[in-house]
Design a protein that fits this description.
By secondary structure, this protein is an alpha+beta fold. The chain has helices at 69-78, 104-119, 126-136, 140-145, 179-183, 213-219, 221-230, 252-260, 278-286, and strands at 4-22, 28-48, 54-56, 87-93, 149-153, 157-160, 167-172, 236-238, 245-249, 267-274. Strand 5 (149-153) and strand 6 (157-160) form a beta hairpin. Helix 1 runs parallel beside helix 2, helix 1 (69-78) crosses helix 3 and helix 6 (213-219) packs across helix 7. The relative contact order is 0.19. The structure holds 4-diphosphocytidyl-2-C-methyl-D-erythritol 2-phosphate and adenosine-5'-diphosphate. 4-diphosphocytidyl-2-C-methyl-D-erythritol 2-phosphate binds at residues 14, 26-28, 30, 32, 101, 103, 106, 137-139, 154-155, 179-180, 183, 240-241.
Length: 287
């Protein structure tokens, strides 16, 4: 029996993000295009048959263990078990900035669902894992399914997509942005006309607009300045509700040369856009 498993927990980008309405419960209806990056966190799950329970090897800065999406996902999955389960210790190699719009927490939750489903041999289907994931956050299902996708609703209605697998410069301005704060701003655009999703939109940079960008630029001058700098080299966009921004380039060398010229003090990384999640690539190797 396998007792330890290390899995990637990749980042996502929202290549575009349109807010097309608001539901009676206040949640915003979106149309967005998700692509994964070949860059992210890594989680290691180690079964502890002599020690029952679910625990983190180390707590995450600023997140109580009970609130951590990894622990919450593991507990929800354990509730589906029909018999006793061995305990597990989960170690996190955290590379993705929190509150960055890269979906790190949601991705960690999806990697936990997939990893423990395998290690605990629960055999839940992808649909069941996506359903559990949606209760943890709107972005979790796309990470569970592992295919780049157009998303509608609050992000749970997914249509697989194949945007170009270009290279990205991702910059992290020096601020953390709370998603709820952006969605509660009065000046937010909430009435972008719905588009009919078509494959022709996948690589069409003119559609790569993010409706949160104007309010985020006003509230966070750091984001405004980073967008101004990166847009010298081509269109630069916000991912999710920020704070991270990205520029898209056809080659790794183009992306790296711009990355190397960035002003001092800006953090971030260069990564490739991928339409099949690195998590799923690894899971396929296991079966
Ligand atoms: C905006 C997106 C785009 O990918 O990503 P991030 O920037 O967080 O990565 C997501 O839809 C984020 O979805 P999710 O991860 O579930 O959002 P949460 O942080 O739980 O939402 C915090 C709060 O924002 C508001 N909210 C969130 C999503 C949404 N579609 N409409 C909303 O009005 C709600 O008030 C909610 O309580
Ligand atoms: N495992 C986790 N990794 C990151 N953030 C987490 C995790 N568990 C809970 N959170 C909470 O979720 C918030 C959003 O985190 P994250 O998913 O990284 O950013 P975003 O939603 O902007 O892409 C964090 O500020 C943190 O409070």
């Amino acid at each position: 029996m396998t007792t330890s498993l290390t899995l990637p927990s990749p980042a996502k980008l929202n290549l575009f993000l349109h807010i097309v309405g608001q539901r009676p419960d206040g949640y915003h209806e979106l149309q967005t295009l998700f692509q994964f990056l070949d860059y992210g966190d890594e989680l290691t799950f180690t079964l502890t048959p002599d020690q029952p329970g679910i625990r983190l090897a180390e707590s995450m800065n600023g997140v109580a263990d009970d609130d951590n999406l990894i622990i919450r996902a593991a507990r929800m999955l354990a509730d589906r078990a029909t018999g006793p389960l061995p305990g597990v210790t989960i170690a996190i190699d955290k590379r993705l900035p929190m509150g960055g719009g890269l979906g790190g927490g949601s991705s960690n939750a999806a990697t936990t669902l997939a990893g423990l489903n395998w290690l605990w041999q629960l055999n839940l289907s992808e649909d069941e894992l996506a359903q559990i994931g949606l209760a943890l956050g709107a972005d979790v299902p796309v990470f569970v399914r592992g295919r780049a996708a157009f998303a509608e609703g609050v992000g749970e209605i997914l249509t697989p997509a194949n945007p170009p697998e270009d290279w990205f410069v991702v910059l992290k301005p020096d601020c953390e942005i709370n998603t709820g704060k952006i969605f509660s701003q009065e000046g937010l655009t909430r009435d972008t006309p719905k588009i009919t999703i078509r494959p022709a939109f996948e690589g069409d940079a003119s559609r790569y607009r993010n409706d949160c960008e104007d309010v985020v630029r006003k509230l966070y001058p750091e984001v405004h300045q980073s967008l101004e700098w990166l847009s010298q080299f081509g269109p630069a966009r916000l991912t999710g509700t920020g704070a991270c921004i990205f520029g898209r380039f056809p080659t790794e060398s183009a992306a790296r040369s711009i990355w190397e010229s960035k002003p001092s003090g800006i953090t971030g990384f260069v990564a490739k856009g991928v339409n099949h999640s690195p998590l799923h690539q690894k899971l396929t190797e296991l079966t």
